[in-house]
Amino acid sequence: MTFIDVKHLKKVYTSKLGSKGTEALKDVNFSVEKGEFISVMGESGSGKTTLLNILSTLDSATEGEVYLDDQPLSSIKDKKVSRFRREQLGFIFQDFNLLDNFTLKDNILLPLVLSRKAVDEMETALQPLVERLGIAHLLNNYPYEVSGGQKQRAAVARALITQPKVILADEPTGALDSKSSQNLMEILSDVHQNGQTIVMVTHSARAASYSSRVLFIRDGQVYHELYRGDKEPDAFIDSISKSLLVSSKGRV
Amino acid sequence: MKISFFSKMAWRNIKSNRKLYIPYSISSVLSVALFQMMASLMTNDFVRQRSSTLPTLFGMGTVVIGLFSVIFIFYVNSFLMKRRKKEIGLYSVLGLEKRHVAHILVIENIMVSGLSILAGILVGVLFGRLSFLFLNYLLNLPNAVGYSTSWGMTGVTALLFIGIFTLTLLYNIAQVTFSNPIRLLKGGKEGEKEPKSSPILFVIGVLSLGAGYYISLTIDNPISAISQFFIAVLLVIIGTYLLFTTGSIVILKALKRNKAFYYRPGPFISISGMLYRMKQHAVGLANISILSVMVIIAVSTTITLYAGTEETLNNRFPEENNLSIMTDDEMNSRELKSAIQTVQGDLNELSSDEGYTMTDQYFFRYVTLWGEMEGQTLAFKDFQGVSEIPLMVLIMPVDDYNRLAEDPVTLRGDELLYYAPDPDLERESLTLFDKAFDLKQINNMPGVMNGMSQLIDPILLVTPDDSTLDTIRAQYNSELAEYPVTLSADFFWSLESSQNSMAYASFIHEELRENDYPIGLFYESRDGNREEWYSTNGGFLFIGIFLGGLFTIGAVLITYYKQISEGYEDRERIQIMQKVGLDKETTRQATHSQILWMFTLPILTAALHTAFAYPIVQKLLLLFGITSNTLFLLTTIGVVMGYSLIYWIIYRITSKLYLNIVE
Ligand SMILES: Nc1ncnc2c1ncn2[C@@H]1O[C@H](COP(=O)(O)OP(=O)(O)O)[C@@H](O)[C@H]1O
Ligand SMILES: [Mg+2]
């Protein structure tokens, strides 16, 4: 069953001076099934972040449409957009976007507070999550007091705590060492097993190998996709790497 | 070559940090201008000549504004530096030595502060003149109040601000030198830890504020009010700063601990927002509160003075014509009486020759002694060089009292009529120079004597006859031979209402200029004094409004700076929260409640301070002859409301600026 449907998505960043502008996305088409775990790969500047921002309603498309459960995202009224973000989406930002004036705990609870949940409900949601992420002992620290990996895990906790239907992650392992990366990917994998849908941007073939499908994006278009099927992880990494290689050769 | 490289670098930094430097420069320029105008007033002719207390008050005012400038410039500077740390850290990482960075900072500082001081003095001079022109036009006083720029004070202004800017520069250089580049790179974030609340400072704040309030509440005479006033003001200022900086943190932390309250969108956003920069925040709020009190007091007292001029005149001059009479040591009360009657007869004759009719004529004789109540005894001694303020004792014979009072009294030979200004002094009987008298209490002094009882509340004794008065005076003089007291008298009369009192006054002046009466005469007319009083009090009003204007500008300045700087700080936070699902409406609600707090807190504090300052300020007003309480009360309430309105408008405008930046 199609959950997210992306149709003829185009995004042009126009500068104020009225010059032609940058075409970040040309014509992107793909769809995501409910419960799928999708990785998006591509070179730097190929439009991955732009795509995620449009999926998450943080940005709007120049042309084309994204449908979620057959409902066009652009039809969600301004007022409901925030609520939609809060309740349906979990976003893991490339640069964490933690607030320095909140402790990790308050950072993680932010979406629940904004949804006006009761305090005990928040606490129940918080405990198992931070234990699984290994940051339970850091809850009263501020973001500038912990390491990059710990910040990233707090950002992940904030994205997961509302148990959103869709999780959007922008290079979540970008700032992590290989061990932390593996740990994080296992958690996302768990979330995937739980039935939540994930769209993740990554540069790492190893990270991408945890997903069920990989989309390759170049010049603002999806030009290739790979299904994991029942491949062994190592084999899947192999074919992803090959595809990447082909893609960069194709460029030359 | 090197110098020019650093200068270019510095100039480029200033330009590229325009957004930070524009509010910074505006704030610096206006601070300089405010101080320059305030200091210039100290040497203003009007201020110097009209009253001996004014230069003192303005001296204090200038000191307060000076302290203020130091605090404010540091406040503004800390914000600027916080935003620039990252950039400065980058220089170090890119290989610029610390002394080079310091070099750049020095040049930047010289450029910005030099320009600010020059521009500030220019603004001060121009604005001072313009506002005096405008106020003179607006108030249309009989005598315009002149403005002169004091170049001496301008020099002081320049020196003070060079000092302040040098201090901030040293502080900045120290910060750059003593922290490592990585810290700097992390920018202001490092310092944004939740502030610690310090119970000791909190207690000191409470004590200091309490002491200031206590002084104001317990002051009982206007003379000591002047010196105590400054101490009270300083204590209240210190208390305000400490309570704002520590108290706010204590309260916010308590709110934060209340989970059911804290974990809701509004409080969650605003409490965390306020808490993490409360230290700066609190200083700004305390500044605004104190400036607001100064505006309210400056304006309400001077309006009261001006509006109360007629009352002052009536207290000073019970009738249109007033003749003060002095005698020498030899003269007793019977001789004085006949001398007054001779003068009175002559005056009546002279007046009617010129076609004037004297009405409402009455006089009273009295003597003023200084004593001390010891149980049932009124003891007299020499109070020279003694710090305690002695009791003022007015004594007059019963015939004269009956001419002044509404209900005439008769007294037995061993009886005195007695008025006590406060309940502690009430007695059944009283011994003076070993002679016991029974006392007959009255509850009020005769209204005519209001003018004599403004500064110090005297006790009044009325003797059954003239000779008792003479005996007491003689005994006093023989015991304290060094300072013999003499009899005095006041003689009042009016004219028929149709007659020209000004012409009459100069006629009487002329007639009394040379005379051969055995008593000294000093003549004053109420109408002759009216113009003088209106121009003096009008001048006070003028100065009051001018100061009120200056302080309001100060408050506006801080509010503006606060909103702009906090806008930039909150902007990023709000944007992140919106990404996570904070909607516009909640953003508005949270920022509005934050803004509302920041609006009401200083105004409420100012109102509270004003309420507690009320008694001491009222005593100060007595020095200027204002005895009516209602006038001052109503004026103060009016001014508080008016000022709140102005401040509210300012707040609306600046919070728009804030919301524009944030959204
Ligand atoms: N806000 C923006 N304004 C203008 N151009 C942008 C903006 N954001 C991204 N771009 C441009 O769009 C293209 C795609 O950027 P992005 O989506 O961030 O790529 P990726 O995340 O794949 O590295 C790049 O050429 C980038 O320069
Ligand atoms: Mg990107």
TrEMBL record, chain A:
Gene3D superfamilies: P-loop containing nucleotide triphosphate hydrolases. GO terms for biological process: amino acid transport. It holds the Pfam family ABC_tran. One of its GO terms (cellular component) is membrane protein complex. Residues 4-244 form the ABC transporter domain. One of its GO terms (molecular function) is ATP hydrolysis activity. Keywords: Amino-acid transport, ATP-binding, Nucleotide-binding, Transport. The keyword Repeat does not apply. The keyword Methyltransferase does not apply. Belongs to the ABC transporter superfamily. This is ABC transporter ATP-binding protein. It comes from Alkalibacterium putridalgicola.
TrEMBL record, chain B:
One of its GO terms (biological process) is transmembrane transport. It comes from the Bacteria. One of its GO terms (cellular component) is plasma membrane. It is found in: Cell membrane. Residues 62-181 form the ABC3 transporter permease C-terminal domain. Pfam families: FtsX (PF02687). The chain crosses the membrane at residues 21-42, 54-76, 151-178, 199-217, 229-255, 282-307, 539-561, 595-617, 629-650. Keywords: Cell membrane, Membrane, Transmembrane, Transmembrane helix, Transport. PANTHER family: ABC TRANSPORTER PERMEASE, ABC TRANSPORTER PERMEASE-RELATED-RELATED. It is a multi-pass membrane protein. The keyword Nucleotide-binding does not apply. Belongs to the ABC-4 integral membrane protein family. The keyword DNA damage does not apply. This is ABC transporter permease.
